[in-house]
Each structure stands twice: as structure tokens, then as C-alpha cells.
Specification:
The protein is of the alpha+beta class. The chain contains 3 helices and 6 strands. It has a 6-stranded mixed sheet with strand order 1-6-5-4-2-3. The chain binds tetrahydrodeoxyuridine (THU). Tetrahydrodeoxyuridine binds next to helix 2.
């Protein structure tokens, strides 16, 4: 019998400690929450993806009266980035959310499983780690890669 340990290092930053690039990305994710369409959950999520061409692509959750037809902020951002700049590589993604009280969440919001899987595809295409910034009200978690958020991912068949 063998044991496999999977270790995840999360760096916890205060907003002021972030690099300028990361601060801008977090700010864009926060702004994107105000363009969310979430009349059903009242949970507004924003995502901002930095591409290697310098562009930042933003997305927000877009809900639908037929609930499963909506999409998360991360997937709206990553699919738009792929559709708009198919040659560009992802460098980092920031995610922020506001709850029913309208305030940014006190704890970071992590991407759902489907979004992790979708983002993983773009990390594979980039051929390098895509950093993941999870922005809460007073702190930002930085994860080294999308892969680190989805151990034992399905990658090929
Ligand atoms: N949501 C996101 O946009 N991203 C996540 O990572 C988790 C959940 C959205 C989906 C739905 O519109 C709302 O948040 C409540 O689940």
C-alpha cells in the first residue's frame, strides 16, 4: 500500500500587499460583480482573466429562469477570452463575489467544479501555471495554478 499526499499551498495576501498587476486584476473582478445578472440567487460573482497579450477579460455570472441554463462568472470569462483571443495564453484569473447584503464576501469564493475543469483546459493550452486569485473583502488567497484546485483532474482519454 502506498499513500499519495497532495499538498496545496495557499498564500494569503492583504489587498495592499498585492503587486500592482494583481491589484488591478482583483479590482476588475470586483467591478465585474456589478455586471452580474443574478435575480435568482442574488449572489454576484465577477472574474477577470489576464492574458499574455496584456488584455484583461471580465465575466460575471448570468442566470436564467431555467436555472441550469445560466453560467458562472469564471466560465463566462474564460469562454469569452477563448472566443475573442484564441491565440492568447491565460496568465492569471481573479474571482470576487458579493452576497445578498451587497458586500464583498468575507471569505473567498472558489470556482465550482465545472469552472475548475473549464479553466484547466486553458491552463493546459497555456503550457504554464495560471495563478488563481480568490478575493474576499479583506484578504486575497493566491493559488499557484488551476491544476492545484482540481487534483486528479480528467485531462484526456
Ligand atoms: N457562481 C459563480 O458565478 N461562480 C462560482 O464559482 C460559484 C457560483 C454563481 C452561479 C450562480 O449564478 C450563483 O453564483 C449562485 O450559485
Amino acid at each position: 500500500m502506498e499513500t499519495i499526499n497532495i499538498n496545496l499551498e495557499i498564500q494569503v495576501y492583504k489587498y495592499d500587499e498585492l503587486s500592482e498587476t494583481d491589484r488591478i486584476l482583483v479590482e476588475k473582478a470586483r467591478q465585474a460583480t456589478y455586471r452580474s445578472y443574478a435575480p435568482y440567487s442574488h449572489f454576484s460573482v465577477g472574474a477577470a482573466i489576464l492574458l499574455n497579450n496584456g488584455e484583461i477579460i471580465e465575466g460575471s455570472n448570468q442566470e436564467n429562469v431555467a436555472y441550469p441554463s445560466g453560467t458562472c462568472a469564471e466560465r463566462s470569462a474564460c469562454f469569452y477570452a477563448g472566443a475573442r483571443y484564441p491565440e492568447a495564453k491565460f496568465e492569471a484569473i481573479a474571482i470576487a463575489a458579493r452576497g445578498t447584503d451587497g458586500e464583498f464576501t468575507t471569505d473567498p469564493t472558489a470556482p465550482c467544479g465545472a469552472c475548475r475543469q473549464a479553466l484547466l483546459e486553458y491552463e493546459t493550452l497555456a503550457q504554464h501555471n495560471v495563478r488563481v486569485l480568490l478575493a474576499a473583502r479583506d484578504k486575497v488567497y493566491i493559488l499557484p495554478s488551476v491544476t492545484s484546485t482540481l487534483p486528479l483532474a480528467f485531462t484526456d482519454f
